[in-house]
């Protein structure tokens, strides 16, 4: 069983590469330098050369604010690239697992978003990701689109590492408190993909879109407070974390006020139940502490 993993340089791609795959599995992993998914001919050539049984796409343009001034790059990475992969997978008759985002929604819903809720992106990043999802679905029936949110890990750039870095030389931080979501570790996303892969290998044909995010919900402000509380044994007393509104912290791209995803469908289909976000955060904080 061979997997082709794209986006190996990112958070989820990194975790997919270090996941304990079953005996008999092999992983061919490429970062952007190794294979740029926006280059159609190279994508087709790689699928032909590697002959994978399943392709996992963790590659994306993820600079949410910069996407507003770099729309061409965002659309290339988030729509053209996935379309290329889907077309190559269709030609080779193999499934594609593709990562998506909570940013396809506008965040105005009162409760958690279900897979069939109407999409309404607020900015270029979300628009390009939603278009990429549609491109995958239109080109390849054998697909699993996995929407997730608020991704973090001990590797790469993310909110957890940014908070710890800023707190190193600032006694106080101002963090938005009127946006809620579910912090999701890249390691847990990789583990969920591992379960989906196993089910596909066993013959599952439960294609479509699924949500997977950490269990429970919190604001960015509450997330920051939890980060500092859990890191206090090795980094010392937490800084003052001031709660502010979205209006107090304007950004080029608008963010959904509600990014909470309903994850019941993935549980019903694949038996995947998200772990509580705070429990997983403690593990990642521990990993970061061990590396300091």
Structural account:
Helices cover 41% and strands 16% of the residues. The protein is of the alpha/beta class and 292 residues long. The protein has a domain at 2-154 and 183-216 and 260-275: NAD(P)-binding Rossmann-like Domain (Rossmann fold, 3-Layer(aba) Sandwich), CATH 3.40.50. Strands 2-1-3-4-5-10 form a six-stranded parallel sheet, with helices on both faces. Strands 6-9 form a two-stranded parallel sheet. The radius of gyration is 19 Å and the shape is globular.
Q: CATH superfamily of the domain at 2-154 and 183-216 and 260-275, called what? A: NAD(P)-binding Rossmann-like Domain
The helix tally amounts to: 9
Kindly estimate the percentage of residues that lie in beta strands according to DSSP.
Answer: 15-25%
Low-pLDDT runs of 5+ residues are: none
- Average pLDDT figure: 96
Q: Please report the total strand number as a whole number.
A: 12
Span from first to last CA? 37 Å
List keywords for this structure.
single chain, alpha/beta, 292 residues, Rossmann fold, globular
Tell me the layout of helices and strands.
Elements: E1 2-6, H1 11-18, E2 26-30, H2 40-50, E3 54-57, H3 71-92, E4 96-101, H4 124-139, E5 143-148, E6 151-152, H5 159-167, E7 172-176, E8 180-181, E9 184-185, H6 186-201, E10 208-211, E11 218-219, H7 220-235, E12 240-244, H8 264-270, H9 277-290
Parallel strand pairs: 1-2, 1-3, 3-4, 4-5, 5-10, 6-9, 7-12
Antiparallel strand pairs: 8-11
